[in-house]
User: Which sequence fits this backbone?
């Protein structure tokens, strides 16, 4: 049995009991240049590292992750798109130089947006899938809310820095985790080189803008770069090793590739599977009113196993107990729950259950208790 992480600082919702905790050597976190960053586990969403991860920032072309996932979910990649003048007139940043009136399949536009970060392709995507650019942006924001991205708001499809166009490192990680579940998205963000085909003879060779992918960083399989003057150099990087996939987000970085690789190495090397709570572990007690016993101990209803640094002082247990119980109390009766917190974020919860049953007091016992109180 893996050893249980013991002696945490306990934050208790209804009552507080001090727990003495030893000084523990903490695994050294990566030192990065990014203004905001986060590292999460792609399978569980567990946050492994965070730096101002909830602060609103300009996401630059990381915006295109939402643009593309909507195109994949709402459109048909074999649809032939007729390029508009609006798409042709996009002239800032990366482009595939679309021309008004020419035809190209939606799937080719998706490829160009994800790999080459083509700004004109996102406008063409939006007008085809959403019937208009502005309507598509409304759909982007609706999708953001559906995913729980409450600090995210889009004004355009490509990430131009304008007022009220913002997200956070954490919410971009959540979005990317969702998007990577789409096989087409995962394919193109993990592809180094490809060719964009128009209807007819026109083609354009493109290569990923992600240098981690181009330089074969160990396990890398995505995802997306973004750069504007306001947003700075941004990157979302994904890598998989030994069956574990991690997602690193860095915003406004002086060295985005080094920052991301440091975070990924930290996640892969420092985090190990550990049993935080064991089923049946005593995690407190609760008062019982009108019972033959005045208290009953509370036990964890199940194990909690998480990936954490081997020596870590950032794990906390937060107890949520509804208040006193009134007899009769059944054995294994639910009485609140415990949240496991890491880096001030809830990772998992486990129900609390009573250790034993507590019978209701008899009439004589109640009379005697009332007399002793008076």
Assistant:
């Amino acid at each position: 049995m893996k050893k249980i992480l013991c002696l945490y600082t306990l934050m208790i919702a209804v009552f507080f009991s001090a727990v003495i905790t030893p000084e523990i050597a903490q695994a050294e976190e990566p030192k990065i240049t990014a203004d905001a960053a986060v590292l999460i586990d792609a399978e569980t969403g567990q946050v492994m590292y965070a730096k101002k991860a909830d602060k609103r920032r300009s996401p630059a072309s990381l915006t295109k992750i939402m643009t593309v996932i909507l195109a994949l979910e709402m459109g048909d990649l074999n649809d032939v798109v007729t390029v508009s003048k609006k798409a042709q007139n996009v002239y800032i940043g990366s482009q595939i130089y679309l021309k008004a009136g020419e035809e190209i399949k939606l799937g080719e536009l998706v490829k160009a947006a994800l790999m080459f970060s083509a700004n004109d392709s996102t406008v063409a995507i939006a007008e085809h899938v959403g019937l208009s650019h502005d309507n598509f942006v409304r759909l982007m924001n609706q999708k953001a809310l559906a995913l729980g991205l409450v600090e995210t708001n889009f004004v355009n499809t490509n990430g131009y820095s304008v007022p009220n166009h913002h997200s956070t490192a954490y919410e971009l990680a959540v979005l990317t985790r969702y998007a990577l579940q789409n096989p087409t998205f995962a394919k193109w963000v993990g592809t180094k080189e490809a060719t964009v085909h128009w209807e007819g003879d026109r083609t354009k060779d493109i290569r990923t803008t992600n240098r981690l992918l181009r330089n074969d960083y160990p396990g890398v399989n995505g995802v997306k770069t973004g750069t504007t003057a306001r947003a700075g150099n941004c990157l979302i990087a994904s890598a998989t090793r030994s069956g574990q996939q991690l997602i690193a987000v860095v915003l406004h970085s002086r060295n985005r590739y080094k920052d991301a690789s440091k975070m990924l190495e930290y996640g892969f090397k420092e985090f190990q599977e550990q049993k935080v709570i064991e089923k049946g572990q005593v995690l407190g007690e609760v008062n019982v009113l009108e019972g033959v016993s005045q208290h009953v101990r509370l036990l964890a209803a199940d194990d909690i196993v998480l990936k954490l640094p081997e020596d870590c002082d950032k794990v906390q247990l937060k107890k949520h107990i509804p208040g006193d119980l009134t007899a009769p109390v059944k054995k294994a009766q639910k009485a609140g729950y415990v949240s496991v917190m890491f880096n001030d974020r809830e990772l998992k919860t486990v129900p609390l259950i009573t250790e034993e049953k507590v019978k209701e007091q008899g009439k004589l016992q109640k009379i005697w208790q009332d007399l002793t109180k008076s």
User: Anything to note?
Assistant: Confidence is low (pLDDT under 50) at residues 1-25.
